[in-house]
Amino acid sequence: MSADKARPADTMTLLRVGEAFTPERREATDILMAGGKIVALGQDLDVPRGWPVREVEARDLIAVPAFIDQHVHVTGGGGEGGCGTRCPPIGVHDIVSMGIGTLVGVLGTDSISRSPADLLAAVRGLAAEGLAAYMYTGAYRVPAPTLTGDIQRDLAWIPEVIGVGEIAISDHRSSQPRQDELERLVSEARVGAMLAGKRGICHFHLGDGKRGLAPLRRLLEETEIPPDQIIPTHVNRRPELLEEAAEYALAFDASVDVTAFEDAGDGLSAFDAVSRLLARGVPSARITLSSDCNGSLPEFDADGAYVGMQVARNTALIGDWQRLVQDEVLPLESALELLTTNVARVLGLHAHKGRLALGFDADITLLDRALRPQRTFVAGRCLYGDIGE
């Protein structure tokens, strides 16, 4: 089979793998990358002699779309116990070694010593090292701190800004926003995103509070805002909240984001949470996974006083995802959607990310048979794993 008809000007990479999931299983086992894009998919691709092509033999590996993590504290979260409890920033290796090629940076509780400007600088730093990196403007508190002084302007004029978040509700650390304040914030995000040609989601942090998802249910019931404008995360923080999230997803045909906690405590692991959502009838297309990595996992006593903290990592994200396949909760094709196509759709990146397809970004992760990431390509460049010369 012949590769592309028009010869790209830059060096190309031809991956020859054992299997390819796009996320659907494909007959193709050869993937040609050029100019940061996938330009050919097939079997036994024949590249014309003299073309600048580097061939990578990986017949023992499985090619899948590189994972997308929509919730990463790239500057570090924390601070709930004072300045000595600020979490460290994350590095590129910690991201790509988990098969992640695209991320969205967030601020959390601390938007005083850390700011949207700090987050933008960190996101651009990761992009300079090859990652596909975006961010939410805002933080826990409402009104949301922004780069330009206005949510609409941030979305319209800052390419990296693709939404607002993480906005805290049902949490003693939130700013306890009134319902009209939430409605105004979401509508500002929607209009700014329309002007920018973006999805402009509002990424909502759910705490342990008794109100749970009630503010978001009310918002959807009483306004014209569509459900895909709103993404609640940490819905597996406690079993009762997950049950509420299942009802929310089914009632509004809405998406919910499950956090891969390393230590779920009184909550549920991502594996258990996804299993329960599926058992409740929530379609897998309405479920996404994220890591919350380098955020804080603070502990508070019954009076709300800080007693300790751990730093979240992204290893549980991949571990729980692997278990979904290995324990046959989902076939590989469907499990991949939780970290690829579903996330790309939620974020509005689905026209060029989340799939192995012609013209899409050449973001590819190579897995071994145990589903462990061995190599990660972003825009055709190998950022993790040895491909030789």
Automatic annotation (TrEMBL):
Cellular compartments annotated: Cytoplasm
EC numbers for this chain: 3.4.19.-
Alphabetical list of SUPFAM superfamilies matching this protein: Composite domain of metallo-dependent hydrolases, Metallo-dependent hydrolases
Active site per the UniProt annotation: 292
Main location: cytoplasm
Cofactor(s) this protein requires: Zn(2+)
Any one GO molecular-function label of the UniProt entry: metallopeptidase activity
Binding site for Zn(2+) 1: 71, 73, 292
Cofactor note: Binds 2 Zn(2+) ions per subunit.
PTM per Swiss-Prot/TrEMBL: Carboxylation allows a single lysine to coordinate two zinc ions.
GO annotation, biological process: proteolysis
Binding site for Zn(2+) 2: 205, 234
Recorded coiled-coil stretches: none
Keywords in alphabetical order: Hydrolase, Metal-binding, Metalloprotease, Protease, Zinc
One Pfam family of this chain: Amidohydro_3
NCBIfam families linked to this entry: isoAsp_dipep (TIGR01975)
Protein family (similarity comment): Belongs to the peptidase M38 family.
Role played: Catalyzes the hydrolytic cleavage of a subset of L-isoaspartyl (L-beta-aspartyl) dipeptides. Used to degrade proteins damaged by L-isoaspartyl residues formation.
Record protein name field: Isoaspartyl dipeptidase
Organism: Chromohalobacter marismortui
